[in-house]
From TrEMBL:
Function: Catalyzes the conversion of inosine 5'-phosphate (IMP) to xanthosine 5'-phosphate (XMP), the first committed and rate-limiting step in the de novo synthesis of guanine nucleotides, and therefore plays an important role in the regulation of cell growth.
Species this protein is from: Nitzschia inconspicua
Subunit structure: Homotetramer.
Taxonomy of the source species: Eukaryota, Sar, Stramenopiles, Ochrophyta, Bacillariophyta
Boundaries of the shown chain within the full protein: 36 to 534 of 892
Protein name, per record: Inosine-5'-monophosphate dehydrogenase
Binding site residues for K(+): 310, 312, 315
């Protein structure tokens, strides 16, 4: 049992994912029935327990949108200005709604040049035009790609080429999503503005959203206005409070306090501040690898914990600082402790295969956070390049010199003003092309389902019960007894697989 391996283990050895294997169980259900839904935080449950890491080569809005559409969640990195990060969150929140309750509107004075810039910045194709330039103003037209396609002068005002109000099909406030869908079908329009009795814009419905809604039954959405869930990372400096305010204003659902060693007075203070100032936003504290670290962050009010120190694929923290913990042990011990308080944990880093995900879940993790596994997908920031005929994307540690120079050092250095010498705790590299997340996430999900099925476990919840009631069998893959004997001088050579 896990208890035997992690607690009653006289060698005190830390276990990595590769040191362990889950023993098979009895299969009494089809693979498609394996339920992998799980909690990220106290209040956020995901259909797919996958989280993309807040790293500047992993999660910006495209990654976060696709992760959420696939049932997981993305955490937007903070290696950019607070305003830019809030914009990234806004792009995720605005991406897909049943009803878009606060569509980006244009005023009658907006020029074609400004429209084109907004289109590029926001990835939107159409904008309603209202007399105030805001939601709630009187609807006077809509701009779509077709309207602007043949205009060349960037200074022309929208009123000269928009589709004006009298040619628009609109719905009245109170329309249901089904009725709206029907109107869009019959009118063959792409957008349906919803107006009140004063002809003021109260919502916008997009045909593509309705379509996408159908295609993504697992999507992670808030129950309130059905926007995609989105997370964002912040540091623990005083100016991060302003960053958090902008993120909360943009509608962020979860803030990850991003630190390689989370058990600090700075983080405790930040968690307390966040919970008081933004009670609607869940907070994930970390990173931690021991119950005593976890205790401080839970006491401060964290709704979830991020577990892992120095075990990521681009990490050198364990070499440079000699501090950290083998990840399977960290996940087991922190998850077991946090469970007493109803706090889920996310196993962060070191995931290299679907098998590692299954192990993390079986050891008590609610979700897994991935960097290198996702950095090679189409949705990760950056362009592909070729090296020796292999298609790659750049991937770098946030503690690498390169990322620190771009602002990433806040995760590793508390007092930048006093720290003139930079000590890298990560490296830069590249990962191979993985194609689109839309195909890759279903592949990862299915791999995990097969793993749980082989172990005879029908759901992540059930794995939890089996873990703690001692009916989940785990074996060490390293022959521990030989290592122990060697350590005690009882045998001089190790079998090759034990070295
Ligand atoms: P994977 O293994 O998924 O790990 O690529 C991603 C996680 O690694 C952490 N991270 C770092 N750790 N130095 C470190 O020691 C770094 O430069 C670094 N950058 C990221 C982070 O927790 C991430 O989610």
């Amino acid at each position: 049992t896990a208890e035997k391996i992690f607690v009653n283990n006289p060698s005190c050895m830390g276990m990595t994912y590769d040191d362990l294997i889950v023993m098979p169980g009895h299969i009494a259900f089809p693979v498609g029935d394996v339920d992998i839904s799980s909690n990220l935080t106290r209040n956020i449950r995901l259909q797919v327990p996958f989280v993309s890491s807040p790293m500047d080569t992993v999660t910006e809005h495209q990654m976060a949108i696709t992760m959420a559409l696939q049932g997981g969640i993305g955490i937007i990195h903070s290696n950019m200005t607070a305003e830019e990060q809030a914009q990234e969150v806004l792009k995720v929140k605005k991406f897909k709604n049943g009803f878009i309750l606060d569509p980006m509107c244009l005023s009658p004075d907006t020029t074609l040049g400004e429209v084109l810039k907004r289109k590029a910045d926001l990835n939107f194709s159409s904008f309603p035009v209202t007399d105030t330039g805001k939601m709630g103003g009187r609807l006077i037209g809509i701009i779509s790609n077709r309207d602007s396609a043949f205009i060349e002068d960037p200074n022309v005002k929208v009123t000269e080429f928009m589709t004006a109000r009298d040619s628009l099909v609109v719905a009245k406030d109170g329309v249901s999503l089904e009725e709206a869908n029907q109107i869009l079908k019959e009118s063959k329009k792409g957008k349906l503005p919803v107006v009140n009795d004063n002809d003021e814009l109260v919502a916008l419905i997009a045909r593509t959203d309705l379509q996408k809604n159908k295609d993504n039954p697992r999507a992670s959405k808030d129950s309130h206005n059905k926007q995609l869930l989105c997370g964002a990372a912040i540091g623990t400096r005083p100016d991060d409070k302003k960053r958090a305010q902008l993120l909360a204003d943009a509608g962020v659902n979860v803030i990850v306090v991003d630190s390689s060693q989370g058990d600090s007075i700075y983080q405790i203070e930040m968690i307390k501040h966040l919970k008081a100032a933004h009670p609607q936003v869940d907070v994930i504290g970390g990173n931690v690898v021991t119950p005593s670290q976890a205790h401080h962050l839970i006491e401060a009010g964290a709704d979830g914990l991020r577990v892992g120190m120095g075990i990521g694929s681009i990490c050198t923290t364990q070499e440079v600082c000699a501090v950290g913990r083998a990840q399977a042990s960290a996940v087991y011990h922190v998850a077991k402790y946090a469970r007493k308080f109803g706090i889920p944990i996310t196993a962060d880093g070191g995931i290299q295969s679907t098998g590692h995900i299954t192990k993390a879940l079986c050891l008590g993790a609610g979700c897994v956070m991935m960097g290198s596994m996702l950095a090679g997908t189409d949705e990760a920031p950056g362009e592909y390049f070729y090296q020796d005929g292999v298609r790659l994307k750049r991937y770098r540690g946030m503690g690498s010199i390169e990322a620190m120079n771009a602002g990433g050092e806040k995760r590793y250095v508390w007092d930048t003003a006093q720290s003139h010498v930079k000590v890298a705790q990560g490296v830069s590299g590249a990962v191979t092309d993985k194609g689109t997340l839309r195909r890759y996430i279903p592949y990862l999900m299915q791999g995990v389902r097969h793993g749980l099925q082989d172990a005879g476990i029908p759901s992540v919840e059930a794995s939890r019960d089996r873990l703690y009631n001692g009916t989940l069998s785990i074996k060490t893959t390293t022959p521990l007894s030989y290592i122990l004997q060697a350590a005690m001088g009882q045998c001089s050579t190790l079998p090759s697989e034990g070295r």
